[in-house]
Structures are given as structure tokens and as C-alpha cells.
UniProtKB/TrEMBL annotation:
GO molecular function: ATP binding; ATP hydrolysis activity
CDD domains tied to this protein: ABC_DR_subfamily_A (cd03230)
Domain ABC transporter, chain residue ranges per copy: 2-232
The keyword Transport is assigned to this record: yes
Keywords, ordered alphabetically: ATP-binding, Nucleotide-binding, Transport
Protein name as catalogued: ABC transporter ATP-binding protein
Classification via Gene3D superfamilies: P-loop containing nucleotide triphosphate hydrolases
InterPro entries, alphabetized: AAA+_ATPase, ABC_transporter-like_ATP-bd, ABC_Transporter_VariousFunc, P-loop_NTPase
Any Pfam family hit: ABC_tran
Length: 238
């Protein structure tokens, strides 16, 4: 389980000629359970990406704590986490094969068989230079590199950004196919309709705090609402 406890993070930004502080995270609390796909939802600038980066150890928090299976983030917990950001992360000039070889050296749980399978499924040529690929294929490479780390927790930040609807459907099938029972996937996205059948739990973040959390299936069965409809109801009452 990932436990986010009273986590706060403040940034500075220029306002006119002065630096002003703003809270990206404001004593935020939530848990991520294994065996589930959890969506962090909300409008832009409300802390979704910041909290994913904090879980991944890429952002130093000001206060609170984040526990990975009961441990604070340390060198040992990094092998439990795979973070796929919404920006390109490959080395310039690297082929897919070179990127795979690099990852296999630095990640002890790297799954070469899964990488081979996903390359075939995505119809990617390992000798292609990643820079020369389309945006959709670069996104496929990122997803493959993330899932093949065989991490317990996979953090996906806007994985559908700039991807056409047909490739989104392909990605969803990939996520469900390659997720193991003891894993957890955490996803941020604005493509809410696309993840309706994918997500188990939903956490809605507003101004760095959780304003609502629910199980998607329970909301559909008990309230007759989709995730998007439930979000609209939450925001109407805010």
C-alpha cells in the first residue's frame, strides 16, 4: 500500500516583480491499494502531477510523509515504483533496443520477456531511433519501459496526452493485460470517459487536497452515475 499522510508542498512563482508562494499540496491524505487501478482526477494545476512526483521521490515534500509498504521513500523502495511522466524521457539518439538495454542494467526487476512481447504487440522495431517515431509510438515506448520494470506500483501521468482515440483503446487493453494481481496502477488523465471501464477507485483533488474519493463500480451500481457524472456532482457542491 502507498500511504500519503498530511503531505504539503509549496512552490514559489513570480507575480509581477515579486516571488509569491502557492501550495501545490495542502496536507493531502489518501491510500493506494494493490490489485487496483486508481485515478487521480481534477482540473489542471490542482496537485495531481505533483503528488505523483512526490510518491516517486522526484519532489521533496515540505511536511507529512509518504510510505511505500510501510517504509519511507529510500533507495530500496525505488525498485517498487515506476513513474511514466507526461514528457519524453528517452535519451536523444537512442534506439528502442538501446533504451531497453539501459533499463535492464539499472532496474533489477526488469522483465525482458515482457519487453519483447510488448514490442511485438505495439509493432515497434527495436532498431528504430526513438526521436524519429511518431508521438503515439513514443508514448508506446514509454508505456513499455514503465511496465517492464515489473514494479509493484506504476504511476502514469497523463499517458493519453496527444494520443488519438484508437491508440487510447489500445493502451487501456495493454494496462489491463499486463497488470498483475499484486500491482497497483495510479493514473492521472483528463480523458475521463476513456478510463470509465478501467478504473477501480477514484480520488478527486482540488487545490492540493482530496475533496472526494469513491469506488467507481459502487457509484455506478448504487447511484447510477458514471465517473464524469459523479465528478460534476462533486464540483456542483464545492
Amino acid at each position: 500500500m502507498i500511504e500519503v499522510k498530511d503531505v504539503s508542498k509549496t512552490y514559489k512563482k513570480m507575480s509581477g516583480l515579486k516571488w509569491k508562494k502557492f501550495k501545490a499540496l495542502d496536507k493531502i491524505n489518501f491510500n493506494i491499494e494493490t490489485g487496483k487501478i486508481t485515478a487521480l482526477l481534477g482540473i489542471n494545476g490542482m496537485g495531481k502531477s505533483t503528488v505523483l512526483k512526490a510518491i516517486a521521490g522526484l519532489v521533496k515534500i515540505d511536511s507529512g510523509e509518504i510510505l511505500i509498504d510501510g517504509e519511507r521513500i529510500n533507495i530500496d523502495t525505488y525498485n517498487k515504483l515506476a513513474f511514466v511522466p507526461d514528457i519524453d524521457i528517452h535519451f536523444r539518439g537512442f534506439t528502442i533496443k538501446e533504451s531497453i538495454e539501459f533499463m535492464s542494467i539499472f532496474y533489477k526487476n526488469w522483465n525482458s520477456n515482457k519487453a519483447c512481447e510488448m514490442l511485438g504487440m505495439f509493432k515497434l522495431d527495436e532498431n528504430e531511433i526513438i526521436d524519429n517515431l511518431s508521438k503515439g509510438n513514443i508514448a508506446r515506448v514509454k508505456l513499455m519501459l514503465g511496465f517492464c520494470q515489473d514494479a509493484k506500483y506504476i504511476l502514469l501521468d497523463e499517458p493519453f496526452s496527444g494520443i488519438d482515440i484508437f491508440k487510447r483503446e489500445e493502451f487501456i487493453k495493454t494496462i489491463t493485460k499486463h497488470m498483475e494481481e499484486d500491482q497497483a496502477v495510479v493514473i492521472t488523465t483528463h480523458e475521463i470517459d476513456e478510463i470509465e471501464s478501467l478504473v477501480d477507485d477514484v480520488i478527486i483533488i482540488e487545490e492540493g487536497q482530496v475533496i472526494e474519493s469513491f469506488n467507481a463500480e459502487e457509484v455506478r451500481e448504487m447511484e447510477g452515475m458514471s465517473i464524469l457524472e459523479k465528478m460534476r456532482e462533486v464540483y456542483r457542491h464545492e
